[in-house]
Write a structure and sequence with these properties.
This protein has a domain of 232 residues: TIM Barrel (Alpha-Beta Barrel), CATH 3.20.20.140. 37% of the residues lie in helices and 12% in strands. The protein is built from eleven helices and nine strands. The strands form two sheets. Strands 1, 2, 3, 4, 5 and 6 form a six-stranded parallel beta sheet that branches. The chain has a three-stranded parallel beta sheet with strand order 7-8-9.
Length: 339
């Protein structure tokens, strides 16, 4: 087993045998998958049941990842490790005790918000960002304790900065780009990106067209040059890929993502004022077989092989290895951790 792993920091595909096989064709060793948006705890468990059936049906292709060591296992066995994440704290409802239970079930990332104000923090679509709430601070501490990564991809600026400050472990922004490159509400300011890097956190670059300069027409060279500029800002060790790939999802799913159960109206969100739907992907990336195009693009703009390896998965692997278990106590012992 040589070379660095290939890890995607976020996908929300309409999962199927076809996509599982494309993961293998593309050599994807691990992927953080969204298993829940607005679902409550019981509905999230139902989604985990579906994943268990996929793991049982396609054991030669995929398995559930729980620790960074599982990325190495995936590489050794020619499979893809699937790491669970939530894009909203709905899955924990208003019960802090469910944080540990969700981690036990395999959840490894949880966003504190999805665009809107939550019980924990303010989303990036709110007119006023009031920061991390009292409950949010308690939940961050509990997430730190059990090894559940704080994800602020859809959160407002103040909330994100306060989460970085309050968290005793590095957080992640799994799927976003610099706002200085493309000023989407979801993209992050240089202030946030610098604070994220200084705290040891990770940024995953998104190829979702609403996050790209030029949208669906964004050129691969422009995307790769943006990555290189962000490496100069944050450091090469703090960046990775988080495609936000929503392959084969019907347009109706966009309504669930944006509307959930919080409104009776259509929330148009990012993009035009037309009925919500998925934009066309850029021509250079539409499924998991195309990661090599990104790595080749990074090489073409002058990144070294070590830098490309870091961006394409090496950095995420290091982050996984230190983030998914409980932190060491003063004796150096790590309780309930597999590595």
């Amino acid at each position: 087993m040589t070379g660095a792993p290939l890890i995607d920091g976020l996908q929300y595909a309409n999962w199927s045998e076809k996509i599982f096989r494309q993961l293998r064709e593309g050599g994807v060793d691990a992927v953080h998958v969204t298993i829940t948006y607005h679902e409550n705890f019981r509905e999230t468990v139902h989604n985990i049941e579906q994943w268990n059936r996929w793991f049982e049906t396609f054991p030669e292709l995929i398995f559930q990842g729980r620790t960074g060591a599982d990325v190495e296992l995936a590489r050794q066995t020619g499979r893809t490790a699937i790491f669970f994440g939530s894009q909203n704290p709905s899955c924990m409802e208003d019960d802090i005790g469910l944080v540990e239970i969700l981690h036990t079930l395999g959840l490894r990332f949880m966003q504190l918000t999805y665009n809107n104000q939550s019980l924990l923090a303010s989303g990036c679509y709110e007119a006023e960002d009031t920061g991390v709430t009292r409950m949010g601070r308690e939940v961050i501490s509990e997430m730190n304790r059990v090894g559940l990564v704080v994800d602020m991809s859809h959160s407002g600026e103040r909330s994100t900065l306060e989460a970085i400050e309050h968290s005793t472990r590095p957080i992640a922004i799994t799927h976003a780009n610099p706002a200085s490159w493309h000023p989407a509400l979801r993209n992050k300011s240089d202030i946030v990106l610098k604070a994220l890097a200084q705290s040891g956190g990770m940024l995953g670059f998104s190829v979702y067209p609403h996050h790209l300069k030029g949208g669906s027409a964004c050129r691969l060279q422009d995307f790769c040059e943006m990555i290189a500029r962000t490496a100069d800002l944050m450091g090469i060790d703090r960046i990775g890929i988080g495609t936000d790939l929503c392959q084969d999802q019907p347009d109706s799913v966009v309504e669930w993502m944006r509307v959930g159960r919080w409104t009776k109206s259509i929330d148009y969100g990012e993009g035009s004022a037309d009925a919500p739907g998925f934009p066309d992907m850029p021509e250079w990336f539409s499924d998991n077989r195309h990661f090599n195009r990104i790595s080749d693009g990074l090489t073409a703009i002058g990144m070294t092989s070590n830098e490309v390896d870091a961006v394409m998965g090496g950095n995420w692997l290091r982050f996984f290895k230190t983030s998914f278990g409980r932190p060491a106590d003063k004796s150096g012992k790590v309780p309930h951790a597999a590595e």
